[in-house]
């Protein structure tokens, strides 16, 4: 793989997201850019204008970033790392990073860091706005029960090529099975299910020539997309979903999945990245 850096939104917990980003940067032979955002609080009234408060917030952020750097150095990974301390809101800075990154990695939205600093659901926001693939990683992972490899969820309504390209590359790099799941709404008649099965085979046709070492399993699931994807996170190493909408149309499946998943989730934009100006 080639392209920009792997960007980690450093939340101070130094959990599974850090290890995931470090491993992906190494696998992709990419720079790992570790970003910690230390914006000024918005609810301190006149104190916001104080230079002393500004320095204190940035100093605390630098200490956190330094501790992350120490842990990464202890991993002894063969990866070049750049550390960035920003005083922008995390949603703003990480969204800007997504314009040049090949991958953005964050934790999930239910950890204290987001409530304390972000004031909102950052991972869910990035899932519906980021210009590059986003992977959200739960703080703790139980790998012992994961047996379905990489699961890619398809709905048959969008051009799946960017999503499948990302899925096949990950499955090949990880040396694991790619489980392609076609979603069909509850209550679908048998003819619709059969049509979905044929559509899935058609969508996957030809990919095996480019990725001959990737074992592919196909399945049609009759369930609500969000329910099926959340259930898949209990069994998979990684679940991938696509996000379409040139005007940042909110996709409830993608946004909800990153809040409730129990394994890493990749949200892949299906629209072309805007051209640089």
Structure commentary:
The chain has ten helices and ten strands. It is of the alpha/beta class and 277 residues long. The protein has two domains: 6-136, 3-Layer(aba) Sandwich (Rossmann fold); 143-269, Rossmann fold. The protein starts with 5 loop residues before the first strand and ends in an 8-residue tail after the last strand.
Name the helicity range.
40-55%
The geometry reads as elongated
Kindly report how far apart the N and C termini lie: 24 Å
Structural class: alpha/beta
Average residue-wise pLDDT: 83
Unreliable residue stretches: 111-119, 246-250
Q: Give the tally of β-strands.
A: 10
CATH class of the largest domain: Alpha Beta
Percentage of residues in strands: 15-25%
Q: C-alpha Rg, in Å?
A: 20 Å
Largest sheet report: 10 strands, mixed
Order of helices and strands: EHEHEHEHHEEHEHHEHEHE
In CATH, the architecture of the largest domain is 3-Layer(aba) Sandwich
Please work out how many helical segments DSSP would assign.
10
Strand order of the largest sheet: 3-2-1-4-5-10-9-6-7-8
Count of discrete structural domains: 2
CATH fold node name of the largest domain: Rossmann fold
CATH superfamily of the largest domain: HUPs
